[in-house]
Specification:
3 domains; about 450 residues; two-stranded parallel sheet
């Protein structure tokens, strides 16, 4: 570390030597900059190595704001809104203008009357107002259901990115804790090695005992390297989720609020709050409207049309009206379509049946998911208490065995065994503790209330 700082300081000073200060102020500035470079070389690189501390609530908000899955869901809402506009346009009047110009090969006249002009220009303005199209209102209603479904999809996407971020965040916390555990284990291993060497010098321990202690130290170093690699990997995953490119650190989150609801209340809440379940119900409603849309093919359509025509001919044809205004009522009754409408109705009914089955399947899955999350949380509460007792006993046992090892009343194997037990107990407690906190968030996710916790900053 000292060598690295020296190199940075020397590089900074060398870069300053290329500067040619001018005037008294320039000389003073040069001296001040050189002093900073020599005394605080690492400060010049602080910006490059800055670490951003991210709380779990900040991680949630960053992920929601930057992750592509949420943005894609937002675009789907926009698309669904456009589909509502499309469906609405079928109800509103349509206005169009048509213009054409015709150039004939020659003018034709007979008995003093112009039969064919040399050229002709015509402009038609057509206004069409649909009066009755069966299924049009149902199509718009279907589009509105699908818009609501896409909004629920956006909310569900946020729920999903929140729980995914929570899992990644707790993975970093666990990895960070494991690094600390392995650092402590390495420190103990080196102390054990020092004691073994001291006892070997006075003839109280064989060389094999020293070699065993050295092997344990090397193993602890390897474990620490693996733990540090796991920490780096877990941070990479979290940075990807929250859209952060620089180095990050995490902090212990506050414990989630305990739910006082019974299992049945949790399931009922899930049915009412889960956005994916709401999506499935909206799918059913949209499919039901789809059947009405398909059945509209059996019914006639009625339109009101107004037409304005303006003609200009050169020379003007005899007995042709230059301008005209007319109105028409058009009735279109389907007599035979080759079974098209029947097939469309059949397909629409099948879509409804699929949506109904998918909703029923999800409802049953939700009950299972809530039960699993609830029981896992209860089990982890009991497990954490057991591991706390195990760590307490393992720590006391190690302290006692290590003191005995110092005075020659226990062997290297005894110390290694006690240390292994302590490491295992500490790792298990850390994992179970973080798993319990994550399980509380998982339960909120499974009942559809995880975003309420994020919004309230809990």
């Amino acid at each position: 570390m000292r060598s690295l700082l020296f190199k940075k300081g020397r590089a900074a000073v060398e870069s300053l030597l290329n500067i040619r200060p001018k005037g008294l102020f320039g000389v003073i500035t040069f001296i001040a900059a050189a002093s900073v470079a020599v005394l605080c070389p690492n400060g010049l690189y602080a910006a490059e190595n800055a670490v951003t501390t991210v709380t779990i609530d900040e991680a949630y908000r960053m992920a929601i704001a930057t992750h592509e899955s949420v943005k894609i869901a937002g675009e789907q809402v926009i698309e669904a809104g456009s589909n509502v506009d499309k469906a609405t346009s079928a109800i509103l009047p349509h206005l169009s203008a048509i213009g054409n110009y015709t150039r004939y090969s020659k003018e034709i006249s007979a008995d003093g009357f112009v039969i064919q002009p040399l050229d002709s220009t015509e402009v038609d303005v057509v206004l069409t107002q649909p009066l009755f199209h069966s299924g049009v209102l149902s199509a718009r209603k279907q589009a509105l259901y699908l818009l609501d479904k896409s909004k629920e999809g956006l909310r569900f996407s946020k729920d999903t990115i929140v729980i995914t971020t929570a899992r990644a965040y707790f993975d970093v916390l666990k990895a960070k804790k494991n690094v600390n555990i392995d650092i402590a284990a390495l420190k103990r291993a080196r102390q054990e090695e020092d004691v073994a060497k001291a006892r070997f010098k006075v003839g109280a321990l064989t060389r094999s005992g020293v070699l065993r202690a050295k092997a344990e130290t090397a193993g602890a170093e390897a474990d620490l390297t693996s733990a540090q690699t796991a920490l780096t990997d877990s941070k990479t995953v979290l940075r990807r989720l929250i859209g952060e490119s620089g180095e990050i650190d995490v902090v212990e989150p506050s414990l989630p609020a305990e739910s006082s609801m019974t299992f049945d209340q949790l399931v009922d809440t899930a049915y009412a709050q889960r956005h994916d379940y709401r999506q499935s119900e909206l799918d059913k409603s949209a499919a039901a409207e789809g059947i009405k849309v398909a059945k509209g093919g059996y019914w006639p359509s009625l339109d009101l049309q107004g037409l304005y025509v303006n003609r200009y001919q050169s020379p003007e044809v005899s007995f042709v009206q230059a301008q005209s205004l007319s109105g028409a009522v058009m009735l279109n009754f389907p007599l035979f379509e080759g079974g098209l409408t029947k097939a469309q109705v059949s397909a629409a009914k099948s879509e409804y049946n699929q949506a109904e089955l998918a909703s029923l399947s999800l409802k049953r899955d939700i009950a299972v998911q809530v039960r699993e999350a609830y029981e896992r949380l209860q089990a982890l509460k009991a497990t954490v208490e057991s591991f706390r007792k195990q760590v307490s006993s393992a720590q006391e046992n190690y302290d006692m065995v290590f003191q005995q090892f110092k005075f020659g009343t226990s062997t290297t194997v005894d110390v290694i065994d006690a240390d292994t037990t302590l490491i295992s107990a500490e790792s298990s407690l850390a994992s179970a503790t973080y798993d319990q906190e994550l399980a509380a968030i998982e339960l909120k996710y499974n009942i559809g209330t995880v975003m309420e916790e994020v919004s309230s900053g809990k």
